[in-house]
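ok new one. same drill as before - structure tokens go in, u give me an amino acid for every spot. 341 of them this time. try not to just spam alanines like last time pls lmao
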């Protein structure tokens, strides 16, 4: 397979720059891949697609204010996106500057802190921080919400709330698990009232999720690494649901990747781990039966995953329909519910 197999024409006007007026006011495209069925709906109709025996699994990671504006000793500006807090003294970050800082160089941070470039690690730099407070506390005070690069505006006060799920719990993500942005507390109550069960895991979404696939031959692409944790209760309920013939619905591609990464011949294993699982058509799914997801970038690993799940031709047809019907794309856009091919 080649990256160009997953290209499509997307009018820029369909890239959502702001969230809908309220959570759940988005649209929903239902794809029953085995039956070849496409159905347009509003997200408020989501509960009509779930019922007794269904287990919905959500990603409860919390987005940190990971974007900072720093300065070189020469005064040049450096935009910093913290990928991961390694410990209280070091972070892994992406740096954008006219000239990339070299190892040993120092950066002035907002609020009087300082960072020293230790080394470059692929797309990222390892930095040693000199702060008077915990890194997480510092970012909350001085950082800003790291909106995706295709949202071409600065983050505002509303993004601190809307680019975060209502059930976000564990800080560590630099991008939101966007399928979950459609849910408010009322919708979660309605899902329970429909007879479905809810479970949670944590996968800290990294900045690498926005990295383009640069290799035309997909065998040469290497995924970024992301951390996940499957609680014992979630693993137990997944096994119970499968034993009873129920359906596992992953709310977002991050949930799907975590579950498939944690699965072995005995089922989903509880615990912590790191995944760089790259799912393309031909992948044999072991856990997830249904997937709720947003509409993704052309040539992206997320689109490749969705094509693997719903079938390439069925997903291409659905995306052509979404473009023709003016669905909103990407993080603040509309949703798609897919029955596995």
């Amino acid at each position: 397979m080649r990256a160009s197999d997953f290209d499509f024409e997307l009018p820029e006007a369909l890239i959502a720059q702001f969230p809908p007026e309220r959570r759940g006011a988005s649209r929903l495209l239902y794809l029953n891949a085995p039956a070849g069925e496409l159905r347009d709906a509003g997200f408020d109709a989501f509960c009509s697609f779930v019922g007794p025996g269904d287990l919905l699994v959500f990603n409860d990671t919390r987005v940190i204010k990971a974007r900072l504006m720093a300065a070189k000793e020469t005064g040049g500006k450096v935009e910093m996106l913290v990928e991961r807090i390694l410990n209280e003294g070091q972070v892994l970050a992406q740096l954008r500057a006219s000239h990339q800082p070299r190892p040993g160089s120092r950066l002035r941070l907002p609020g009087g802190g300082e960072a020293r470039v230790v080394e470059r690690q692929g797309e990222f730099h390892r930095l040693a921080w000199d702060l008077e407070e915990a890194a997480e506390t510092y970012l909350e005070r001085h950082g800003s919400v790291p909106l995706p690069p295709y949202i071409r505006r600065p983050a505002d006060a509303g993004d601190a709330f809307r680019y975060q799920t209502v059930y976000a719990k564990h800080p560590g993500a630099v991008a939101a698990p966007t399928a979950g942005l459609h849910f408010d507390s009322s919708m979660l109550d309605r899902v329970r009232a429909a007879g479905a069960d809810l479970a949670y895991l944590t996968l800290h979404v990294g900045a690498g999720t926005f990295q383009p696939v640069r290799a035309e031959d997909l065998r040469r692409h290497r995924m970024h690494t992301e951390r996940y944790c499957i609680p014992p209760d979630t693993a137990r309920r997944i096994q119970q649901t499968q034993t009873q013939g129920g359906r596992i619905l992953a709310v977002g591609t991050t949930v799907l990747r975590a579950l498939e990464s944690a699965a072995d011949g005995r089922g989903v294993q509880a615990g912590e781990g790191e995944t760089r699982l790259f799912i393309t058509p031909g992948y044999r799914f072991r856990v997830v039966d249904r997937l709720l997801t947003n509409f993704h970038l052309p040539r992206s690993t997320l689109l490749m995953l969705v094509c693997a799940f719903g079938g390439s031709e069925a997903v291409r047809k659905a995306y052509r329909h979404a473009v023709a019907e003016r669905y909103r794309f990407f993080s603040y856009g509309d949703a798609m519910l897919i029955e596995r091919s």
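The domain at 67-142 is CATH 2.40.10.240 (Thrombin, subunit H). and btw The mean pLDDT is 95.
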